[in-house]
Amino acid sequence: xxxxxVTGGLGYIGSHTxxxxxxxxxxxVVIDNLNNSKEEVKARIEDIxxxxxxxxxxxxxDAATLEALFVKHTFDGVIHFAAHxxxxxxxxxxxxxxxxxxxxxxxxxxxxxxxxxxNLIFSSSxxxxxxxxxxxxxxxxxxxKAESPYGTTKILGEDIINDFAKHKEFKSILLRYFNPxxxxxxxxxxxxxxxxxxxxxxxxxxxAAGIREQLTxxxxxxxxxxxxxxxxxxxxxxxxxxxxxxxxxxxxxxHNVDVFNVGTGKGNTVLExxxxxxxxxxxxxxxxxxxxxxxxIEQIYADTSKVNALLGWSAQYDIADMMQHAWAWQQGxxx
Length: 335
Ligand code: NAD
Ligand code: UDP
Fold this sequence. Notes:
This protein is α/β, with parallel strands linked by helices. 41% of the residues lie in helices and 16% in strands.
């Protein structure tokens, strides 16, 4: 396997994955429409990896652009990150989410089919498990009806790939990410949230930086050790490395589709995350306890035994590393 197409490769998880792909010798072509990223990320990726890659500024929904890319290059695999990802926005604008996330995938699959390209790695999410009661969740945990159109696009994406792969010489791996956080240790790439962040870690770093006045902890009356919600936070570089492992596994597997949880296997409460941030960075965070946020799941974390055993992958970074790297990235943004 040599040449990989990465859709959404300038985004948060995509940029870290392109670094890892280049670093182990893959050639990479990225298609990104800059909907949620900046062109300057390309140079930063190349700076870290010490190698260059081709960037096509274009939309995966644009069949002609995809066709031209697949005529120009022979791809050995595709990693599909390109999608919208804001849960609240998807509730307000479901059509935009189905259009970009579902139609975008269909457009990609039909071009892959036409050019007989196999080995697709798809970005799914632990959101497909909903409020699972048996923890940790395994890949066999029942998928629940999604709470938001965004969640539905991930369930549909998995279904479409399963159907597509059934009668074809086509292989795909579905990666169900838990909560990706942190940034590259070089602080050259990281998450670029637009406007007020919804997610915990960017809200923490922006509060510490003085961009937000105060962090609100959403609820402390949950049935957990300190009353705040539990998530399985995974360092974005660890997550990126899982994609490289998945590519290798995908081309050699005897069946068409497989699915893996990608998390650390360990849950942290919101207060534990805040304390880890304060301790590792020596920064006091201004936060208060507020009411629960509607739609929040009390706790979820991954059973990672399948990904550990079959992909030979496990998370290397802990929550302190995640907080340290997230803060270094945030500080770099202010310079
Ligand atoms: P991101 O927004 O940072 O990256 C997505 C990239 O895709 C952006 O650079 C954007 O410009 C590009 N893009 C969007 N639509 C496009 C289109 N139609 N054509 C070309 N480019 C397009 O998001 P991310 O956090 O890196 O997420 C990557 C993937 O992982 C998404 O599919 C997301 O749903 C999934 N995911 C993310 C998380 C998370 O918490 N970040 C969790 C689970 C799953
Ligand atoms: N959270 C919080 N304050 C914030 C943002 C998030 O207390 O400003 C909590 C949220 O209730 C959840 C956890 O942090 O329990 C992770 O939230 P995030 O939105 O990052 O991820 P998700 O809920 O989608 O897993």
